[in-house]
Amino acid sequence: MKAIIIGAGKVGYSLASVLSKEGHEVTVVDANRRRLDMLAEHLDINVVEGNAAQLDTLINAGVENAGLFAATTEKDELNMVACFMAKQAGAASTVARVRNPGYSDFDDAARLEALGIDMIINPERVTAEEIYKLINHPEAHYVGYFGGGTVQVVEVRIPIVCDKQNVPLMDLTFPCPGLIIAIEREGELIIPRGQAVLQAGDEVLLIANTKNMRALESYLGVNSSKVSSVAIMGGGFAGYYLASMLEQRHKKLQIKLIEEDFARCEEMAQSLKETVIINNSGFSLQLFEDENIAAVDIFVALTEDDKENLFSCVLAKSLGAKKTIAQIRGGDFINIIEKTGIDKAISPRNLTADGILRFINRRHILSLTRFEGHSGQITELLIPEHAVCAGKTLMDLEIPEQAIVCMIIRGSEHIIPQGKDMLQSGDQVILFALPEALDEAEELLTAVR
Fold first, then answer.
1. Among candidates 396, 385, 394, 391, which has minimal Cα distance to 430?
2. Could you tell me the fold of the domain covering 140-219?
3. Is residue 121 a contact partner of residue 352, using CB atoms and an 8 Å limit?
4. Domain spans of the chain?
5. pLDDT beyond 60 at 373
6. Quick one: 264 exposed, middle or buried, by C-beta within 10 A (0-12, 13-18, 19+)?
7. What DSSP designation does 422 have?
8. Are both 2-121 and 371-446 of the same fold?
9. Residues 309-338: tens digit of each pLDDT
10. CB neighbours of residue 110 within 10 Å
C-alpha cells in the first residue's frame, strides 16, 4: 500500500516507522527540510518538501494512488484541509489528527464525509482515555478492553506475599475462567506453558471477562485500592480532557489541576466545575508541599515538556504520592523511564499510531495494542468468511510458540481456548504475539481460501 503522511513531527515519525517496517511504500510531506532529512536518514521512506495545503505538493507526493493519507501535523486546520484535498484528488482513505476540543462536533459521520475525512484521531483524548483506565485500576500497569468491553486484559505485578508463587500454572485453580497470557521477568517477556511458575515481582498479563477480573487479581494476591484524589500537572488538551472525564464519571473524586497560564486557567474554569484549578508557574518542592501532593492517590504529569513531566513525577513519588503517570511525547525511552521510579509512562504518538493502524487493518483487525518497546502485541481479529483456519483446531493450526490465542468470542460465549478447540468464521479471536511471530500468527487466522 502507498501511504502518504503529512507532518514529519513525532506522530508522523512513529507512524512512518511502523508502516515502513511493515513493507508499505511511505512518503512523508513537510515544509521543514531538516525534519525530512532526519526521517530519510533513519527510515526507508520517500520525502517531499512543500505545503500540504497546496494541491501541487500532494500531486508531487502521488496522492492519487494513496491507499492511506494521514495528516498528523500540529495544526488541526491544515490537517483537515489536506484531507479534503487528498480525497478530492483520489486518496482511498484519509485520517486527520485533530486536537482542539472545539472541533469535537466534526466527529460526526455526515460532517466527516463532507470534509473528505474517513477518521479523526485526537492524541490528547486518546491519552486521557488511557490514563483514565489506569486511574480506574490503580493496581494495573496496563488495562485494555476487547469484545466490546466484555473482555479485559490487565498487566499487574505479583506481590512479594503470594501463596501462588512457585506453583505450576497447570495446577492453579482460578475462581473464574481466565488465563495468564505472558510473564515479564527481569526484562524478558515469555509466553508461559503449563509447567511455568510465578515469582514475586513478575509482571503478568491476565485475560478474563471484565466482570471477573477483580476476582482473578485477588486470587493472585493483587489487591486494588480505591482512588479518592487525583492531581494533574498541565492544563493543555490532555489535562483538560482527563479532568473532564473524571468529573463526569467519578462524582466523589477530588481533582486538582495545576497550570501556569492564567488565561488557560480561566478558560478551563468555564467548563470544569468540580476541579480545583491552581495557577502556578512551573513545579517546585514548595508548590507540591503547599498542595499536599504527598497525600494524593494518583499524580499525572501532562505538560508539553517531557523533562518537566519526568522530574515532577519523581518528586511527587518521593513525597509520597501512591502512583505517578507521566506523558512522554518523545516515546523512545519509555521502558527506561519506568525504571526511574515512575509507575507509568504514556506515549501519545504511539497511541495515535496504534489508532491509525487499527483503521488501516479494519477489515479483519478489530483492535490492537502494541506494548512499549514493541515487545509484544495484543490483536483482536475477526475470522473471515472462507477462512483457511475455519473448521480447524488450534492444535492443527500449529500457531508459533511465540504467539497464543487467548480467547475466542463466539456470540455471547467467551472461550478460554485449548488445543482441541475449533475456530469458526465470524469468531472474534484475541491474539497475543511477540514481534517475531506476529505476522505468521495473524496470517494463519485471517487467510482465506
1. 394
2. Alpha-Beta Plaits (3.30.70)
3. yes
4. 2-121, 140-219, 227-350, 371-446
5. no
6. middle
7. B
8. no
9. 999 999 999 999 999 999 998 756 666 776
10. 7
Is 191:182 a contact under the CB 8 Å cutoff? yes
Please name the helix (run of DSSP H) or strand (run of DSSP E) that holds residue 188, with its range, or none: strand 188-190
**CA dist., res. 301 & res. 256, Å (int):** 12
Indicate the pTM of the whole model. 0.88
Rounded to an integer, what is the distance from CA 44 to the centroid of its chain? 25
Q: What is the CATH number of domain 227-350?
A: 3.40.50.720
Reported as a single tens digit per residue, the pLDDT across 420-448 is 999 999 999 999 999 889 889 999 999 99
130 CB-contact burial (10 Å; exposed 0-12 / middle 13-18 / buried 19+): buried
What fold does the segment set 2-121 form as a domain?
Rossmann fold (3.40.50)
Reading phi first (left if > 0) and then psi (alpha if -120 to 50, else beta), residue 296 is in: beta
Residue with grid cell 477489515, as numbered in its chain? 363
* Cα(16)–Cα(43) distance, integer angstroms: 8
- How many residues are listed for the chain in this entry? 449
Q: Name the superfamily (CATH) of residues 371-446.
A: Regulator of K+ conductance, C-terminal domain (3.30.70.1450)
The Cα–Cα gap between 210 and 25 comes to 39
Identify the bridge partners of residue 30 per DSSP, sorted by sequence position.
49
Rounded to an integer, what distance in angstroms lies between the CA atom of residue 247 and that of residue 88? 41
**DSSP letters of 126-184?**
HHHHHHHHHHH-TTEEEEEEEGGGTEEEEEEEPPSS-TTBTS-GGG---SSSEEEEEEE
DSSP 333-385: THHHHGGGT-SEEE-HHHHHHHHHHHHHTTTTEEEEEEPGGG--EEEEEEPPT
DSSP state of 23: T
